[in-house]
Amino acid sequence: MKTAIRTFRKSHYGFHAALLILKAFALHAILFKDFNLLKVIALEGCFIFLLLGLVEGLAKKGAPYIYLAANALITTFFAAILLYVTWFNTIPTYHVLLEIGQLGAIRDSVASLLSPLYALLYLDIIILLILLIAKKYPLVRSEAKSPWKRRTFLGALAVCVIVFFYYKNVEIANPVLAAESKGIFNYEAINIAKSSEPKSAATMANEKADPYETNQKIASIKGIKLIPADQRKYFGMAKGRNVIVIQGESFQNFLIGLKINGKEVTPNLNELVKHSFYFSNLFQQVGPGNTSDAEFIMNTSLFPNDNTPTSLTVGNKEIPSLPKVLKEKGYSTMTFHTDKINFWNRDQLYPDLGFDQYFDESYFGDSDKVGMAASDDVLYKKGTEALANAKKPFYSMFISLSSHHPFVIPDEKKTLDLPSEYDGTLIGDYLTAQNYTDAAIGRFIEELKKKGIWDNSVILFYGDHLGLQDKALDDRDQELFEQFTGHKYNLKDRYTIPFIVSIPGKTDNGTEVSSPGGQLDFMPTLANLLGVKIDHKLVHFGQDLLQGQNNLIGIRYYLPPGGFVNDHIIYYPNESFADGDAFSLNTMDRVKDFSKYETSYQKILTLEELSDSYYAQLPEKE
Ligand code: GP9
Ligand code: MN
C-alpha cells in the first residue's frame, strides 16, 4: 500500500494532479475567499484527475513533456479565469474562453495587475522543465497497468458525473458564486451541456411569420396592445433628427442627482435630465456580453443570449435592426468606441447590425489612455469631428470606456472632491470615474452645440450595466453607500441604469417617467420619437415607454432564469417559482406572498425562449 502511494506520488499522473489541485485551491482562495481544501479536491480534483487520466492514456512516449504541456494548459485555463474575473467580475463561459484571444486587447493592463501571481502559477512547470533539461527529473512513468491509476481515473469519472448531475439544475444568479459552489470545471461543463438543450416547440418562432404577427404575439403575452402610429403619444417628436446615443460604461442610476458633501457627482447629466425624458426606473437586461450586449439590445430590442455573449454568435446572420430601418429613411449610420474593434467580436457585430462605418482604436489612437484605451474625451472630440463631416441625418453611437472597472482615472483628470474616508475604496474610485465620464459628456455637449449639431439631434444617454457588483463591495464601501443614499445597497440600486432622451427645443421642460422599463425598450421608444413605424418591420420584445402601458422586463444572466421586473415587484426564483425572492418595486421591502405573479414568471420565460428561437432562425447572409 505504502509503496503504491509512493509510486503514485512520484508518477507524472499523481504529481501533476497534486500540483494542479493546489493551484485550484489557490484560485478558490483568491477568487472566492474559499479555503475549503476538501471541497476543491472533490469538485476540481475530479476533473483534474479525469483530464490527466486522458493524458496518461495518450502519453506513451515523451510523457514528461506531454504532462508538462497538459499542466501548462490547465494552468492557463486557471490564469484565464483569474484574469477574467479580476477584470470583468464574472466567470467566462467556455465560448468566451475559446475567444480568449480578444483578451489580448486588455492584456497589458491586466498583466501589470497580476504578473507576480502569474509567475507563481507557472513556477512548478518552470522548475520541472529545468530539472528535465538538467536530467534530474524526479518523476517517473508508473507502470502501465497500475491499479491505482485505473481506480483513481474511474473514481474521478464517477465523482465528476455525480457533481455534474447534482449541480446541473441548481440556478445561482451570480456566475462567480455559481462557479464557487459548483466548481469551475463543472460550471463550464454544465454550460456546455445546457447550450445544446433543445427548446420547447411552444416558443418556437415561425420563420415565415410577418414581423407584425410576432409582435402581436409578444404584445398579447405581455398583455399590452400594439398602438397604431396615429394614436401614439409623441409619435415623430424627433422626426428627421440626427441621433446621438451615448452608452455610459458601468453607469448606474443612483448616480443621477447624487451629492457628496453638497457637491453633485454628475452635474452635466443632472442638467441634461432637467431638459429630457428621464426614465428613472430602468433595468439592465444584458447577458454575459455586457457592453456588447447593451449595444446589441439598443439596436435590436431582442433578448441577449443567456450564457454566451451574443456578439460571439453573430457573423453569419441577417439581423433586423434599427440602423437598417433608418438607412432606408436616408440615415447614415456609425458607431464609435476607442478600444480595438476585435474586442467582443465587434468587427462582425457592427456590420451585422447595419452600421455603415465604425471607428475604433485605429481612428482614435492610444494617446491620453485611460484603462484599456484612449479616454472618453478623445472619443467625443474625434467623434464630433466625424459627425461634423457625416452625411445628415445620421444615427450614431458612442460607447464610453473610461469608467470601466477597476475605475482608475489619472490624477490630473480627477475633479471630484471626496472626503478622505473614500480614499482607497472601490466606491470612491467608482464615483471619481463616473464624475470624469460626466465631465467628458459635458464637454461633448458643448462641442456639439458649437458645431451646430445639438439642436438638430435627439440625444440618448444610458448606462450599459452595473459597475458595482454587490460582492465587490466590502464593508467600508457598503457603509459609504448607505451614508450617501440613506439605505443599504439593494437590487434596484444594482440593476437600474438611467435612460435619458433629450430633444432640444422639445423636451426643454423635462419629464420624469417612473414606470419600470428595461434596455429592450430603448429601441421602440426611440423609433416612436423618430416617427419610424417598426411594428411591421422589426420584431421587438421591448415596448415604447412613452405610451404608459404595463411592462414586463426579463433579467436573465444577472438573475436566475425567469427573473423579472413587472409593475409591482422585482422577482427571482431560486429552485422553483415558489421559493424565490420578491421585493416591492416601490419600497424594496420583501414581498412574502407573491403567488399571484406566477403568470409573470411563466410569461417572461416564454418571451425569452421566443426571442432565442427568433434569433436562432434568422436567415444566413447571402
Ligand atoms: C471593451 C469594453 C468593455 O471594448 O467595451 O466591455 P465590458 O467589460 O463592460 O463588457
Ligand atoms: Mn461595459
From TrEMBL:
It is found in: Cell membrane. The active site is at T291. The keyword Metal-binding applies. Gene3D superfamilies: 3.30.1120.170, Alkaline Phosphatase, subunit A. One of its GO terms (molecular function) is metal ion binding. The keyword rRNA processing does not apply. GO terms for cellular component: plasma membrane. Pathway: Cell wall biogenesis; lipoteichoic acid biosynthesis. CDD domains: LTA_synthase. The chain crosses the membrane at residues 12-31, 37-58, 65-87, 117-139, 151-167. Pfam families: Sulfatase. Belongs to the LTA synthase family. PANTHER family: LIPOTEICHOIC ACID SYNTHASE (PTHR47371), PHOSPHOGLYCEROL TRANSFERASE I (PTHR47371:SF3). This is Phosphoglycerol transferase MdoB-like AlkP superfamily enzyme.
